[in-house]
Amino acid sequence: MKIDKPLVESIAELAQLALPGEELNLQIDSLQNILDLADQMAAVDTQDVEPMANPLDAVQRLRADTVTESDQRDHFQTHAPATKDGLYLVPRVVE
Amino acid sequence: MTMHNRTIAQMGADMAAGDYSSVELTTHYLDRIAAEDVRLNSYITGMRDSALTEAAAADADRLNGAGSNRPLLGIPIAHKDIFCTEGTRTSAGSRMLDNFIAPYSATVVEKFRSAGAITLGKTNMDEFAMGSSNETSFYGAVTNPWGENRVPGGSSGGSAAAVAARLCAGATGTDTGGSIRQPAAFCGITGLKPTYGRISRWGIIAYASSLDQAGPMTRSAEDAAIMLGVMAGADERDSTSLDVPVPDYVSQLDRPLTGLRLGRVRQYFEHDIDAGSGARIEDAINALCKLGATVVDVDLANLRHAIPAYYVIAPAECSANLSRYDGVRFGYRCDDPIDLADLYRRSRSEGLGREVQRRILAGTFALSAGYYDAYYRKAQQVRRLIRDDFVNAFDIADVLIGPTTPAPAFALGEKTDDQLAMYLQDIFTIGANLAGLPALSMPVGLSDGLPVGLQLIAPHLEEARLLNVAHQYQMGTDFHTLTPVGTVAAGGQPSEQP
Fold first, then answer.
1. Are the beta carbons of B10 and B169 closer than 8 angstroms?
2. Cβ contact (<8 Å) for A91 and B340?
3. Which of B35, B37, B384, B437 is the most exposed place for a label (fewest CB within 10 A)?
4. Smallest CA–CA separation between B148 and chain A, in Å?
C-alpha cells in the first residue's frame, strides 16, 4: 500500500503526535518501508487460520473482585508535572 | 584484584569462604564503574550509596548465618533501566522519563533484593527498548568493550556491555525481538530470553505486551541458571505470568548431552552469514556432537515472514502501551501548552525520540479502522503459522540451533540511517519471541576479533534444557571466559582466542 502525506497527518493526529514539516516527511518514507515489509505477508495463505494473541494459548487469569491496593494518590502525585488539591492540572478545556 | 573475573557462582563460594566481603566486592565494582564507564557509557544511573548499604546488610546476613541457599547474597548486579526501582530514576532510555523517579519496584527487582543481591545501578538501553544498537538512547550510545567504534547491540546494550567489561557480576535485560540475545552475542556473554510468561513483567516498562520478556545476562550459563531461579515464577500482579512451578535450574546443569537432538534450522543457514561467524557456529555444533549430540535438519518454512509480522504486532502494541505518556500524570511535559491537544502532542513529540514515534505511527495505522484486518489480524494469523512450525520442529529435535546474528557487532553509526538494515539485525531472534519460546545466546569464539553468538531455542518452559546444553559446552571450552582487551587493567587475563 502506498501512503501519502494526508494519511500520515491523520495517523499523527490519532497518535497525538506533533510532527513538524521535515519530521513528517522523514516519517512518511520510513512508514512506507514498514508497510512494504508488512505487505509481504499478503502472499501468505491464512484462510481459516485463527489469529494468535498468546503463544501458549493462555487465557487471562482472573482474581476475586476485592480491593488489594491502598490509596497512594499523594505518593503518585509527587511525580506529576502539575497538581492542585489532589487533582492533575492541564490547560483550561472549557472557557 | 581480580574479583571481577570471578563468576557469580565463584563469588558466592569466595564470600562463603571469607576471601572477601560483599562491601569489598561492591566497592571494587563501583570503583571500576567510575574508572571505566566514562568510556563505555553502559550505566545511566549509578546507585553507589544504596549499593554499599545493601552490601553491608548482606555481609551482616552472612555473618548471622543467613547465607545458606542464597547464591546471590552480596552479589553486585545491574538492572536495565526499564525495571522500576523505587526511589531511583527509571528512564527507559527516554527523555520522556528522564525526570521519573519510580514510585515502586518491579517484581524482579524485589526478588533480587530478597535474594540479597546488590544493585549497582541502572543500565543504558535503546529508548523504550526499541532498537538493535543502543543508539536510540536519550543518554547516548554505548561502546562495545570489544571495539572502540562498535555498537554493543540492543536494546539491552548497557547490560551486555557492563557484564562483558566486568562492571557488574550479572545484569537483567528484556527481550521483545532479540534485545537480550543480540547484545549478548555482540558482547561475548550468555543471555537468556525465557518462555513468554516465565518471569513477571510487573514494574517493567511495557513495549509490546504479547512479546516482552525479561531474562538474565551473565558471563556463564551457570550464572544465568542462578539468576533465572530467582527471577522466574508466577506473580499475582502480572496476569500473563505463568502459574507453573520453577524447577531447580542449577541442579540440571550437569546432565550429559548423550542423545540430544540438535535441530539445525535450514532457514538460518541459508541466510547470508559472515564467514568467520559461520565457521565458529560449525565449530560449536561439532563440539556439541562430541559431547553426544546428534544433528538433524529442520525447516521453519514460515519463518521468513517473522520480520514483517513483528513490525506490525510490536508497533501496534507499542502504540497502545505508549499512549499513557501524555504529559499529565508523570514524565515530560512541554513548556507553555496553549490547550490540551497541544499539551499532549508536543509533550509526546518532544519527549519521545524519532524511532519511538515511528513505531507509534506504524502501530496506530495498523490498528486503525479499515486497516486492522489487513495488517494486525493478518500478522496474528502469520504468527500462529510461525509458532506451529516451531512446535512441529520439536517433534524431531530437542533444541534448535543457529547463529544469533548474521554478523558480529557493526560500527557505531553504520546503520543509523538504514532503518531496514537495522530491523534485519533481529532476523534470527524474532521467531522465538513470536512463538513465545525460550532461547539463549552464548559466545562460541571470535570473528575478526569480535564475539560470535550461537543461539539455542527450546520448547516452551524448557529453559533448563538450554542452560544444560550451554553449561556442558562451557565446561569443555573457554570462549565464555574471553575478556575484551583494555577492560582488565586490574590484573585480569588478557584477551586472546584459546
1. no
2. yes
3. B35
4. 29
Could you report the per-residue pLDDT of A26-79, keeping only the tens digit for each? Answer: 999 999 999 999 999 999 999 999 999 899 988 888 888 999 889 999 999 999
Number of domains in chain A: 1
**Which string of DSSP letters, residue by residue, matches B112-168?**
HHHTT-EEEEEE--SGGG--SSSTT-TT-----TT-TTB---SSSHHHHHHHHTTSS
Distance from CA of A65 to the nearest CA of B (A): 13
Provide the sign of the torsion angle of the four alpha carbons B400, B200, B211, B140, taken in this order.
negative
Interchain CB distance below 8 Å, A11 and B436: no
| Confidence (pLDDT) at B489 | 43
In a domain, A71, yes or no: no
* Residues of chain B below pLDDT 50: 488-498
C-alpha to C-alpha distance for B43 and B33, rounded to whole angstroms: 8
pLDDT at B485: 77
CA distances from B394 to B259, B264, B304, B387 (A): 15, 11, 19, 11
The DSSP bridge partners found for residue B446 are B451
pTM for the whole structure: 0.96
Q: Which residues contact B163 (CB under 8 A, 6 or more apart)?
A: B169, B170, B171, B187, B189, B217, B218, B219
Chain B residue numbers touching A58 (CB-CB < 8 A):
197, 240, 242
Is residue A39 assigned to a domain? Answer: yes
Grid coordinates representing B222?
551457570
Residue length, chain A?
95
pLDDT digits (tens, 9 = 90+) for B312-357: 999 999 999 999 999 999 999 999 999 999 999 999 999 999 999 9
Of A8, A18, A79, A69, whose CA–CA distance to B350 is shortest? A18
Give kind and range of the element (H or E) at residue B457: strand B450-457
Instruction: Please state the domain extents for chain B.
Output: 3-255+440-481
Nearest chain A residue to B327, by CA:
A81
B439-447 β-sheet, strand order:
B43-46, B118-123, B76-80, B170-174, B214-218, B190-193, B439-447, B450-457, B399-403, B261-265, B294-298
**At A25, which CATH number?**
1.10.20
Asked if B22 is an active-site residue, the reply is no
Residue A26 lies in a domain: yes
Whether residues A72 and B379 touch (CB distance < 8 A) is answered with no
Nearest residue to B311 (alpha-carbon basis) of A15, A6, A31, A90: A31
Quick check: B382 and A46 CB within 8 A?
A: yes
Q: Is B319 annotated as catalytic?
A: no
* Prediction ipTM score: 0.96
Instruction: For residue A37, tell me if it sits in a domain.
Output: yes
Spell out the alpha helix ranges (H) of B240-396: 266-269, 275-290, 306-321, 340-351, 354-367, 372, 378-393
Write the burial class of residue B14 (CB in 10 Å: 0-12 exposed, 13-18 middle, 19+ buried): middle
**Superfamily of chain region B3-255+440-481:** Amidase signature (AS) domain (3.90.1300.10)
Predicted confidence at residue A69, as pLDDT, reads 86
- Of these residues, B42, B91, B132, B179, which one is catalytic? B179
Q: Closest residue of B to A54, CA-based?
A: B210
Among the partner-chain residues B243, B360, B368, the one whose CB lies closest to the CB of A17 is B360
